[in-house]
Specification:
Elements: H1 2-29, H2 32-39, E1 62-70, E2 73-80, H3 86-89, H4 94-99, E3 107-111, H5 121-132, E4 136-140, H6 154-172, E5 177-182, H7 184-198, E6 205-209, H8 215-221, H9 234-244, H10 251-254, E7 262-267, H11 275-287, E8 296-301, H12 318-325
Parallel strand pairs: 3-4, 3-5, 5-6, 6-7, 7-8
Antiparallel strand pairs: 1-2, 2-4
Helix pairs in contact: 1-9, 6-7, 8-9
The chain binds 2-acetamido-2-deoxy-beta-D-glucopyranose (NAG).
Length: 337
């Protein structure tokens, strides 16, 4: 009997070994698997959200709409008005929401990270915080995510973001428009801002929450790659497969081409995008020629706060931090940690 158990164990171990060794080869042969792992757009967590009903997420001053970045390609968008307008917003339709852009309130375009949709809980909580601070928040699902059409790609994400940015700019004229990216969305954000700066129209500020330097460094540090990180050939098997999909998210290069105020927020206990990558990006940004003369700020959040990868919205200091960036206050409060 004991031998039987040992035999079974051996067989299981052998299978695990076969799986462990095959995965790198499978990925090398089908690099599109790596693209799916980077985007995780098929993970619709939480599954039963009706994106047409932001009210279900407690957003009683949010309008769901669809825009068409390319002919025949619709993307789902949420527009949340500043929270002080919530009573007025009851029962209102698109036309009213559109007219609110003419008020003096600034607008934040929010670019979410991989996995899930614009209705993900940590995202919704941030919209609530920002709208309570008097901002409009406009968020959307890139092509391939949520109820948007199409399939994901870095180029597609960036051009969707650019389209929505221009759509907003048309409505805002000279009013402030800020860009906020989270996680993979920080890569989209720096791509977008680089494009805007290339054409001579930088945004009013860029906020990067839990950013990384580039996708290769991020993939290497991601918990998913833990069991392979030290395998010889890791770069060739895994990272080259990402590059083969034209996925770069090179924020480290982009910071040398952007010129607007930049704020980086990162929690020391971030287990998805490690803190040191956000710090490294900040060091690069603070040495960037194109950013010289602009405010470049790094705000770490101590591990004791347990904000990890998704919970910086909980920081009671966020209002002060934003006020500082957006020029309303001369100095960062000393208690921001
Ligand atoms: C609607 O949302 C606002 C802002 O988040 C909140 O203060 C208010 O209590 C909500 N009203 C209702 C009836 O839920």
């Amino acid at each position: 009997l004991r031998l039987g158990v040992v035999g079974k164990l051996k067989r299981i171990l052998l299978w695990l070994l076969v799986v462990y060794v095959s995965i790198p080869f499978i990925i090398k042969l089908c690099p599109s698997i790596q693209a799916k792992l980077v985007f995780l757009n098929f993970v619709r967590m939480p599954y039963f959200i009706d994106l047409k009903q932001p009210l279900d997420q407690g957003l009683n001053h949010t309008h769901n709409l669809y825009l068409e970045p390319e002919a025949g390609l619709k993307v789902g968008v949420w527009h949340t008005v500043p929270a002080q307008m919530w009573r007025e917003a009851q029962g209102k339709e698109g036309e009213w929401y559109d007219s609110t852009f003419s008020s003096t309130h600034p607008v934040i375009l929010y670019l979410h990270g991989n996995a899930g949709t614009r209705g993900g809980d940590h995202r919704v909580q941030l919209y609530k915080v920002l709208s309570s601070l008097g901002y409009h928040v406009v968020t959307f699902d890139y092509r391939g995510w949520g109820d948007s059409d199409g399939s994901p790609s870095e180029g597609g994400m960036t051009s969707d973001a650019l389209f929505i940015y221009d759509w907003l700019k048309e409505r805002l004229d000279k009013k402030p428009l800020y860009i906020w990216g989270h996680s993979l969305g920080t890569g989209v954000a720096t791509n977008l801002v680089r494009r805007l700066c290339d054409r001579g129209s930088p945004p009013d500020a860029l906020i990067l929450e839990s950013p990384f330097t580039n996708i290769r460094e991020e993939a290497k540090s991601h918990p998913f790659s833990m069991v392979y990180r030290y395998l010889p050939g890791f770069d060739w098997f895994f990272l080259d497969a990402i590059t083969a999909n034209n996925i770069r998210f090179a924020s480290d290069e982009n910071v040398n081409h952007i010129s607007c105020p930049v704020l980086i927020l990162h929690a020391e206990d971030d287990g998805v995008v490690p803190f040191h990558l956000g710090k490294k990006l900040y060091n690069m940004a603070s040495q960037s020629k194109s950013l010289s003369g602009h405010k470049v700020q790094f705000v770490p959040f101590s591990s004791s706060l347990a904000y990890k990868h998704k919970f910086i919205y909980r920081s009671p200091e966020l209002p002060n931090i934003l006020r500082y960036l957006l020029c309303l206050s001369p100095s960062l409060p000393p208690s921001h940690r």
